[in-house]
Specification:
Blueprint lengths: L1 E6 L4 H12 L6 E6 L7 E2 L2 E4 L1 H5 L5 E6 L4 H13 L7 E2 L4 E2 L3 E3 L4 E2 L4 E2 L3 E3 L4 E2 L4 E2 L4 E2 L4 E2 L4 E2 L3 E3 L4 E2 L4 E2 L8 E3 L4 E2 L4 E2 L8 E3 L4 E2 L4
Parallel strand pairs: 1-2, 1-5, 2-4, 6-9, 7-10, 8-11, 9-12, 10-13, 11-14, 12-15, 13-16, 14-17, 15-18, 16-19, 17-20, 18-21, 19-22, 21-23
Antiparallel strand pairs: 3-4, 23-24
Length: about 220
């Protein structure tokens, strides 16, 4: 028997589980579970919720996991934990997600329903694209990047490692010799319209997007 886990039993994980079931349709002798170290619930939407230790010690013939945690820094730690125990990470793609020509995407990615990756795009490890997000031509996306629902990432954009782009944000078109750059660890607020580069570890909001000034 093969055991498939979705790491995260709340929020995003509950949206990913149906995609996993859909992807495994027709495969025999499999079980899908949530992996959650909180330990407060035993069953979620008809699936067992077990701890990571229970998952890695399960007597299944093989184990696979998808890390459905929105926070990039948490995803990094959980990816390291899975690697330490040689647990392969899954790539999950909704059947109506679209990936076009000359696209490379690293391991551990999740492409939710109605997402589109167009042509000549390079994406790193553990990328999350939530519903209705798109990445247009000639973009370069780093590792552990998160796109919330409805992100519009236009062509010639570079999004560096650990960046988070909020719901409905728009990243304007860059140029082949001067891509729009979202720096490492930057946060783009929901609904923001980004017209210029965002510095690393900076939060921007508004239209046009500007650094958030905390009071």
């Amino acid at each position: 028997m093969k055991l498939f886990g979705v790491y995260g039993a709340s929020g995003f994980g509950r949206e990913v589980m149906p995609l996993l079931r859909q992807q495994l349709e027709g495969e025999g002798n499999v079980e899908c579970v949530f992996v959650d170290d909180g330990g407060s619930i035993n069953t979620v939407n008809g699936h067992k919720s077990i701890s990571f230790d229970e998952f890695r010690n399960h007597p299944a013939e093989r184990r696979f996991i998808s890390i459905a945690i929105g926070a990039g820094e948490t995803r990094v730690e959980l990816a390291k934990r899975c690697a330490n125990f040689s647990i392969p990470v899954l790539n999950i793609r909704a059947v109506n997600s679209i990936v076009m020509d000359n696209v490379t995407i690293g391991d551990g990615h999740i492409l939710c329903a109605f997402t589109t990756i167009t042509s000549n795009v390079s994406i790193g490890r553990h990328f999350h694209a939530n519903i209705y997000s798109y990445v247009a031509h000639d973009c370069v996306i780093g590792d552990f990047v998160t796109f919330a629902p409805g992100v519009m990432c236009n062509g010639n954009v570079r999004v560096e490692d650990h960046a988070y782009v909020g719901t409905g944000a728009v990243l304007r078109q860059g140029a082949p010799d001067k891509p729009l750059v979202i720096g490492e660890g930057a946060i783009v607020g929901m609904g923001a319209v980004v017209t210029r580069d965002v510095r690393p570890w900076t939060t921007v909001v508004g239209n046009p997007a500007k650094p958030l000034i905390k009071e």
